[in-house]
Specification:
The structure holds two protein chains of two kinds. By secondary structure, chain A is an alpha/beta fold. Chain A has 14 helices and 17 strands. Among the domains of chain A are: 155 residues, NADH-ubiquinone oxidoreductase 51kDa subunit (Rossmann fold); 67 residues, no CATH class. Chain A starts with 27 loop residues before the first strand and ends with a helix. The radius of gyration of chain A is 21 Å and the shape is globular. The mean pLDDT of chain A is 93. The relative contact order of chain A is 0.15. Chain B is mainly alpha-helical. The chains are: A alpha/beta, B mainly alpha. Chains A and B meet through α8, β15, β16, α13 and α14 of A and α1 of B.
Amino acid sequence: MKLPGLKTFRHGVHPPEQKSDTCNAPIRQFPFAPLLALPLGQHLGRPSVPCAAEGTPVQRGQVIAEADGDFSVPLHAPATGRIRRIAPMPGIAGRMVPAIYLEPQPGSTQEVADATPCPLETATPDEILAAIQAAGIVGLGGAAFPTHVKLRVPEGRVADALIVNGAECEPYLTTDHRVMLEQREDVLLGIRYVLKATGARRAIVAVEANKPDAAAHLRAALDPGGPVSVEVLGVKYPQGAEKMLIQALLDRAVPPGELPIAVGALCINVATCAEIGRLLPRGRGIQERIVTVTGPAVVRKGNYRVPIGTPLRFLLDHVGTQGELSRVFLGGPMMGAAASSLDISLSKGTSGVVAFGTEDARASQPRSYPCIRCGYCVDACPMFLNPAQLGLLARNEAFDRMADDHHLMDCFECGCCSFVCPSHLPLVQSFRVAKAAVRKANKP
Amino acid sequence: MSAAGRTLEIGSSPHFLSGYDVGVIMRNVILALIPTVLFAVVAFGLAALATLVVAVASCVATEWVAGRVRGEPGSLGDGSVVITGLLYGLTLPPGSPLWVVALGGIVGVGLGKSLFGGLGRNPFNPALVGRAFLQAAVPVAMTTYGPAFAPGRFTSLPSATLALPFARPEFDTWSGATPLSRWKFGGELTGAEELAFGFVGGSTGETCALLIALGGLYLIARNMMSWRIPLAMLGTVGLASAALHALAPDTYPPAAFMLLSGGLMLGATFMATDMVASPLTHAGCWIYGALMGAIVVTIRIWGAMPEGVMYAILLGNAASPLIERMVQPRVFGARPARAAP
């Protein structure tokens, strides 16, 4: 869908949206699995530190692992029950990661243990940021960056505009769409908290044009002269990337290597905002998140409010799958990660589970050819890099030249280049390897 | 059914692909060439057919052998060598001695493509490498053109076509002249309508400008060809020759003649746009196209030869890596950002 006159960014791609199966499905509560597995490192930064011993009973909402310093968040019990073990579990990439296993107690009322509320009217900006950390809130769009760190305006900088990201440009995902429709009051209250915490004067909720109902629903609750507005953007991937949002909405380009605050902007995901508005007034921590469960192999596709730590196997068994599963992605198909096993569990950053059967997956692995220099990738890259040239250098492991001459580190791995490549070259994958090598080499 | 007990496949994101495919692009280029090929056979009869069949066969055979030697036996599957063969055949005079056609195909694909490692690694357009080799090796065969729509073209081949290798064939029974050589050596202009519709002599596939443009527009509409390169090349030729013609109408031919005659349309549309041998970036495409257009005008107007498209494209190919080095895309945000209020 391409409407003229809508704001957007330059370049990018139009993957099939695949949202129609779930965009009208109301959010439904997901039951507790018999055993929840909670990784301690669900967020970027330092993993949480367990503070409840094996065998102890815990109440839903109680902190079971504390933040390890500022660049970290605590972890709350998603259910009333008992800590079974504190032991490694399979992580998404197949490596074992430290985790807490929690067994929900059948028959419990599952009443939530709230901590101290953080009232909007009286709290100071620092208190709001502290409350966001205490609630264990991280970016729910997928990156899982600790929100209180992201919202802290550095000394000497001013946040002019807050951008609330409801673009949801990834195919298949509809969680932000449903949150905007069903949790409007939480979103708007969350925005007020964040405006106060950051000192920003205005907030713009960015919605792609394929969600007109969400934009209209939000607009209906806004004062015309108020600090919050809704802007409808063109449908294009990766519209929801921070730099693309800022370009489209504010016509400002974040310079290479800089954060949005360099141009006076802050970005926050709309679902993260809704959690702030929902949790802070009650002094509550994150125990569940909204997940789109979909894909050709899923029987009961929909949007579910799933307890953190729910094993993937339980989740897929519950919604039902048809045929043999071949590939399961956590997050969307453009930037999400492929699950290595069904023994991993859902974490705070998991916005979607997309499952494919054997037949769908085979069709997605076509023959690869040498680069024919067609330039499709150059026209697709939203960062204006030269992926073809970078790919060539990556083959020769010329990582330094990639970084020094071709802006490798500005690649945010959106996947547009690999998506359009008619030779089916693993461009993004080779850039990930190269970026890791450059980071390692630059470490003292 | 339970999801349990199954090994999952993993891979790096993105897990979605657009469906673009090198094989699909190549097949579309072949499709876009079909009108030109059909017109060549209609205009030049068996002579064109024989030239094209031998051109494609020699290129495909060379690629087949080279692919085995390189250890890539599947290299015919992408279809690119069929395009090379067709384009190569279309640049030759119809009814060229068939051993010459085969030799040029072997040289073009062998030296122009396989030697550099096959698809995606040829610095020059392989079809033109073969053509340029023949221009130097067998200049008489490469400058002897038959007339279009000759009677009897569907029943007999020119005598030189079936000549034995290295024999001195008799060309004179069939000689005609191209519009460019008639202008260069006789000062005689051909009308634009004749050129556009292809009622003229010339290389097998260069004569009908309209059908060539049709194929090009199809590929541009399908996003399988750069529109910037032909526009820059044709635009440069058009503007330069219009300016020259305005200065001295008696000395220099009008722009329409320059644009529609010779191999310019075929070259600008299907050969200058060879993805492998042209720049990736938009700015690079403009510079590359303009450079080739300037060389065409220079050779045609002031050079010793009537036609210069082949050399213009080969020189453009040679300059392409340098052009690209000069005009890398400017990374997002590198331009001065507007300051926050």
